[in-house]
Write a structure and sequence with these properties.
411 residues; mainly alpha; two-stranded antiparallel sheet; 2 strands; disordered N terminus
Length: 411
């Protein structure tokens, strides 16, 4: 028997309208940190602390962090849902996680050993996922269904912008404590914007909350997203190493700055792709939107892996992949918000988000195993083969989306 839960208004005026940009501000801060850490700094720190085994150390550190991320979301998600059904917001999780994350990211840039790097990265993943798990539900918590696509577009655009700013800071400041302080300040400021806006918003009423159904549709949504994110994290993890292999001797940019420029291009164009996909995600079949995005990513990675782009074609291929990523992010979030049950959204999204943190853990492990079997783990061919693997993973996830129905409610 199901129980009807209705959220009570928060303290301020119930006439306040949700502003997607302010709701998405926290996502900008989260992705600011990840744009610097996952895109450049983790690889650079592994290379500096373990110069003769950087790929292997990167695989261990990133896999361990992702395992902690998945576990944290599965614990925090149900707890935040219970608070939500009692009529409370999830703001406490955002504030607590942001403060801990700000501390952890500074420590990440201070440590001077591989063991310290591992501990700091695990702590950072734990803190950030205290935020991320409950934050997955912010769109249906505050927005009407008819505006899910618009709000998801803002989230995807701010994800791209945050990644871009983080990459620029990492390339300009290097893996230094100054960078850690800048990222911490950005995260706290972004959290403050979202938290201040949430104080003036009523929560959306919840529908019936019965037992959580496990259906084929939810399984297919999970599998599709998991494969796309496998490709994304494989690409993100090995792009630094790929760029290092294609730079000619004496080139004006080193690997850190060149890969930072690539990530900047990727993330800026992804914000544009997300903006262009917002209206189609609200008005049309999201499967076509996802397919367009995934197709662009897979095509770009295939060109890079085949060595067809060359040094000067690298930015164009990266831009194509970025456009596809923004399109995918917008449609993916809107799709999930329409399919998953609102009354247990953080719980189901914690499971659904295993399709993000699971691949974050598995992507380097799968790539390391494959490159080891091929004998290219320590050769210049390794990063190219990793990008080819990334393209194949994205393509599988894109094709899998067609097993899902069209969620027409709210369009």
């Amino acid at each position: 028997m199901s129980t009807r839960w209705r959220a009570t208004p928060m303290r301020s005026s119930t006439s306040s309208r949700p502003q997607p940009a302010r709701l998405a501000a926290l996502w900008l801060g989260v992705q600011l940190v990840w744009g610097a850490v996952l895109g450049i700094s983790l690889q650079a720190r592994c290379s500096a602390l373990a110069p003769h085994a950087s790929l292997a150390v990167f695989g261990i550190v990133s896999t361990s962090g992702a395992l902690v991320a998945a576990t944290t979301q599965l614990i925090v998600g149900p707890f935040s849902d219970r608070m939500r059904r009692a009529g409370h917001s999830r703001s406490a999780f955002y504030a607590f996680g942001a403060v801990l994350g700000a501390i952890a990211v500074v420590i990440f840039y201070e440590v001077s050993s591989v063991q310290g790097l591992l501990a700091a990265f695990v702590a950072l993943q734990l803190a950030m996922n205290v935020v991320i798990g409950p934050y997955q539900a912010i769109v249906p918590d505050t927005m009407p269904r008819s505006r899910f696509g618009l709000a998801s577009g803002w989230l995807a655009a701010f994800a791209g912008a945050g990644n871009a700013i983080g990459a620029v800071l990492a390339a300009a400041l290097g893996a230094t404590v100054i960078l850690g302080i800048a990222l911490a300040a950005g995260l706290i400021a972004a959290a403050a914007v979202t938290l201040a806006h949430l104080r003036g918003l009523p929560l959306q009423p919840l529908e019936d909350a019965g037992p959580l159904p496990f259906t084929r549709h939810l399984a297919d949504l999970f599998v599709s997203r998991a494969f796309v994110y496998l490709g994304f994290y494989t690409m993100l993890g090995y792009l630094y190493f790929f760029v290092a292999t294609v730079l000619p001797p004496g080139f004006m940019l080193n690997a850190t700055r060149a890969s930072g420029l690539c990530i900047l291009i990727f993330t800026l164009v992804s914000a544009l792709g997300a903006a262009l996909a917002a209206r189609p995600a609200d008005r049309s079949d999201e499967r076509w939107v996802v397919t367009a995005g995934g197709g662009c990513i897979a095509m770009a990675l295939a060109v890079l892996a085949a060595g067809r782009a060359g040094l000067w074609g690298l930015p164009a291929a990266i831009a194509l992949a970025g456009a596809g990523w923004g399109i995918f992010l917008c449609a993916d979030w809107a799709f999930a918000c329409r399919l998953l049950p609102p009354a247990a959204l953080a719980t189901t999204m914690a499971v659904w988000n295993l399709a993000v943190v699971g691949p974050q853990m598995l992507a380097p492990a799968i790539a390391t195993l494959l490159l080891s079997r091929l004998g290219t783990l320590r050769s210049a061919a390794g990063p190219r083969e990793a990008l080819l693997l990334a393209g194949a993973e994205v393509l599988i996830g894109t094709l899998w989306i067609w097993r899902l129905p069209v969620p027409s409610e709210g369009k």
